[in-house]
Amino acid sequence: MILRRPFFWIVLLIAAGFIYAPLRANNVSLREDLILIAIAIILASNLNLMIGYTGYVNFGHIVFYGLGGYVGLYLTTVRSWNLVLSALVAGLAVSLCAFLFGLAILRLRGAYFALATIGILQAVQAFVSNFDPWGRSTGMYLSFQSYQPLGGARRALWITYFLIIAVMALSMILSLAIKNSKFGLGLFAIREDEDAAVVLGVNATVYKAIIYSVSAFLPAIAGALMFYKNGMIDPSIAFEYMLSLEGIVMLMLGGQGSVIGAALGGTLYERLRSYLLTSPVLSNFHLVIAGGLLLLVVLFAPGGLTGWLYRLLPRARKVIE
Amino acid sequence: MIDGLLVGAVYGLAAMGLSLIWGVMDVINLTHGAMIALGMFCMYLLFAATHINAYVLLLPTIGAGLVIGLVVYWMAVHWVVGRSMLMSLLSTFAVNMMVIGIGTAVWSTSPYNVNFVLPGITIGAYTFTGNHIAAAISAVVIALALQFFLYRTRTGKAIRAVADNREAAELMGISSTAVLSIAFAIGIALAGTSGALVSTLFPFTILSGSVYQLKSFVVTILAGLGKPFGALVAGVLLGLLEGAVTPFIAVSWIPLIEFGLFVGVLVAFPQGIFGKRAAT
To answer: Which end of chain A has fewer surrounding CB within 10 Å, N or C?
Structure first.
């Protein structure tokens, strides 16, 4: 049972810390920092389901986040739906979309799949930039009225923050649950040797399509919440190719295939990026440093931080997953 | 239409570099876009310094591309050849980030252009700008030179042998490391050259490379892997397509068509449209 895994409780503790720290001091700037970390963790964790568990590189993971943001913002502003409901609907709609895409492109393997995900990202971005109801390339703005049902902007932002933290905790728990399930074992088998897995009775096509759409669900919800919080969306922000790729860097840094690795990588990378972007000397070079870091990790420590930790402390594997 | 055809030759040249590297060493070179952008800036700097015919400056650009290609190969690619696809994607992507990062710091992301105009040719009611024609001719000449190199010279044959079967080539006494580094350098030089050609046609920024990288992917997939000449043909087709649809729909829809086509072809013909036929 998942309740018996120590890591489950660690996740809850982390989430509680995320909620408690900014609330206690009523510190909005801390909250904004934490929200970026939470988004990074959500993206990296769900990307991990594809890259770390199944061994399929998804370069266009951000497409789910952006689409979720669009659907969410459309429902909350134009249809004036309740936030939670629209975020859920956004998640489901995007998952369904991903399932359909997945059935088509998951017949491809390895590099071809990776390229197809870039194609999907670009095609969706091009489509949204031309889609009238979603404001074409200028995007959509949230009217201030939309914050009213949640009791004004100030409260609405806090509520959104708690929801995002909840999604973050869910992302990690979802990763953990999949890792410890039969479904997860099937995914690992596909990662190691897809043909062998098929021979042994893993229905690879269905497994891959399911995990592809599962990995879309929480990022889409996070996108809906995040863009609701920001109050605006446009295609270049929603489908930022760079962010998609940075998700991969986070994952590699922390260690692919490991739940805490994705979270750790997300946190560290996000902190590093904020530091570099705000530092006057280094702000121009944040890409260079991130790239150099990624190169070093790929060449010398393919297991990332957790891989290194496991080698140092083999017993840590039991607690930290 | 004709303009599309001429620009398409340049797309084809860019894709040849990608296709060569992919076919020979099974590495998808994500530095491709950055190298195209570097080619643009190389041309810009050379032209600003010398003010001679921009198409003569292609030669030093090719040379610079070869050198940079070797550097990148030994820095990032050599260690991941033969490892899983993820690793080579990530290491080339890391180099891409570094190049773009440095480029952004040096040149910012504002547009530049190479201010060099050749006289156009007027046939009937149509006028073709000289730059488009010169760029297309240069692209075709370079493509032919590559074709000659791959099929008629010893090194070229070695590259094709390694692409077919690395172990067998090693047994025949071909040093695959040397061959791979040469092939990579040529691929990068092709990317840089096509960037230089593009810079004589359109204004560019350090980030424009990614557009052409994606077009190169589309072309490579259309052509099938490791078929440099097929890439040129597919590039011309893509250019024609762009030229042909522009009068009917808004330009902003073109990416959707291109990438829809890309994903569609990828799913329907994973070997490329010209792939099957060439294999038999």
So the answer is: N
